[in-house]
Amino acid sequence: MTKQLITAADMEAIAVGGAYLGTGGGGDPYIGKLMARTAIEANGPVRVVQPEAVADDALCVPVFMMGAPTVMVEKLPRGDEALEALRQLERFLGRKADALICVEAGGLNSTIPFAVAAATGLPLIDGDGMGRAFPELQMVSFTMHDISATPLVHADDKGNSAIINAVSNLWTERLARVQAIQMGGASLVAAYPMTGAQMKAGILRGTLSLIKGIGETIAAERVAKRHPGVALREQFDGRHLFTGRVVDVDRATTGGFARGRAVLKGIDGFAGRTFEVAFQNEFLVARGDGGQVIASTPDLICALDADGGLPVTTEQLRYGLTVEFTGLPCDRQWRTAKGLELAGPGYFGYDHAYEPVEALNPAA
Q1: Beta strands 239-254 and 322-328: pairing type?
Q2: Which residue, 121, 123, 181, 277, shows the most beta carbons closer than 10 Å to its own?
Q3: What CA–CA distance (Å, rounded) separates 297 from 261?
Q4: Which domains does the chain have, with CATH numbers?
């Protein structure tokens, strides 16, 4: 990231870029942008540092939202829950955090760390744990590097908080998810406390720079009256999966997730064809005519409004909306045996084997 100090004005690009890379999940970009802007305007800009600039014995902590993104649209956070979770984790550990981490890309989870960094004066590390967004807490690169999610603290808008210690990151997900549901379907979290050395081994580098760049590309293409999808696919070796109009959405908030599917009728070059995308907070599988898989987790399925060119999240899908879907290759760690065990199609109960999006959709 060429600009090491992030101001309130930068949050528009970061929120939009995070929403695109968040594959339909990671929370509403508008809410996160407002939280970060308010904190930066009150406390000053946020320092973004490279992983190598952090001492090996530093305490690094991710802060994020856990729960169904649909909940956050209707039940706004109070604003200080993530900071309260961090403070309680620090008290439990008996030491202060030295740096903060963004756990995933997403409209909300890419911006919450900026709000907490501004409020605390702590630096934010240029990287994350996913390179996209995934629905479950254990689905991070840190798990692949044997970094424990606990102790975990989460807090809600009513002032409740809880500390969890668990035997595995999967058990942390199970226990924390139940509590998040009782907290109203979503909570703000501080978890995965790690040393600087552990962070350097496990983090996916450069994500914040990537997110900001994506947001700037989308803004520039819109100003030039071009749809941003073309430029983004060229930049990231993406594949144009399809463009379609939503004709049916089956969506429910259950078990702490927004689960469902959307059916779209193809338009423009895809006219006469029917497509389906399945999601659990994030878009997980896209299928074409006859049910054939055209993109699948852990690769990224990214959505832009076909008219306005802004990212579309799963909670924004509605009848009549025209959406352009792009498939992007995931970080190489997700294509390893460990990565596919954590977030491949088999984990979510799909019966198809994973194939890279570029193999399913050869370039013309």
Answers
A1: antiparallel
A2: 277
A3: 15
A4: 5-207 (3.40.1610.10), 227-360 (2.40.390.10)
